[in-house]
Quinone oxidoreductase
Amino acid sequence: MLTDAICINRTGGPDVLEPCRVAVPPPAAGEIQLRQSAIGLNFADIYQRKGAHGPHAVAPFPVTLGSVGAGEVVAIGPGVDGFELGQRVACMHPGAYQVVRNVPAGRLVPVPDAISAEVAGATLLRGLTAEYLLRRLYAVQPGDAVLVHAAAGGMGVLLSQWARALGATVIGTVGSEAKRAVALAHGCHHVINYRETGFVDAVLALTGGAGVAVVYDAVGKDVFVPSLQCLRPCGMAINYGTASGDVEAFDLQLLHARSLIVSRPTLRTYIASPQALAAAAATLFDAVAAGQLRLEVTHRYPLAAVHDAHRDLESRATTGSAVLIP
C-alpha cells in the first residue's frame, strides 16, 4: 500500500519539506504496522531537516523526518507478542512523518486510557527526555535548586513541573513576559526574562550566592558557558539541545575550581533496548497518573501545514508541545 508522508530530498530550510507517497508493505517478522493519528513535532526534527549532527543517524535521501507518533495497531507481523489489533500505542522510531508505517515492536509502548493519542504523540519524546534528565543523568533531590533554560518551551514545561514535584526549587529563563506567565504556570518558582535581566546574577541572587545543582540547557551556544557560573561546587551543566547553535570548544579550566561536570547526552542511548524504553515510559506515565505532570498539546498543525509548523518552532514562536495531525 501507499501512504501519505512528508519527505526531504536535500537538507535546508522549511521549503525542503515535500509531500510524498511512501510504500508500506505488510509488517515483517518482529514488526507492527501503525496507523498514526498524531505525529510529534520536536526540535530534533529541525536539526534533521537542516542536516545538523544530532539524534538522527545519517540516511540516504529521500528521508522521512521525525521520530515519534501515536495511533493504533492495524497489522501485526510474525513472531510479535504482547500487542493486539486496535490497541492504542506510541512509537519512538525514525520516519514518523507519515500516516501508516511499520516499526519494530520493541519501539512501541502501550498508551494508557487516560492519555490521548494527540498528547502521546506530542509529548512522548519530551517526556522520555525529561525522565532520564531528571531521574537518571542527574537525579534531582528534594531541596535542590535547578535552572531550566527555555522554561516555557515544550521541554521546559515538563522539566519544570517534574523537578518541582521531586522537591526542587525551579528557576526558569524565558525571552518574553508572555512566556514568563507560561513558565510560572508550569512549575517554576522563579522566572528570569533574560532580555531584561542578566540570568547569571539573577540566579546567584535567588540562591544566596550558592548556585544551582544542575542546569538544563536546550539553548546551547548563547547560554552554555555563562551557565557554568550559576552552578554550585560539583554541579552539572547538561546541554541537551542547541536551539541557538552548537556549543563549541571552551576552556576546561572553567570547570576546575569548583569541580564542575558537563554533559551532552542523547535520548537514544537511554532507551536503546526495548526494556529501557518500556521502563522509561512506565515511569513517565506513572508521573502523569500521580499528578506530577500535566501533559498538554498547545499547538496543532495539519500534516499538510508542516512548513508553518517548522517555521513556528524554529523561530521560538511556540510554547508547550506541538503536534502534526495526519
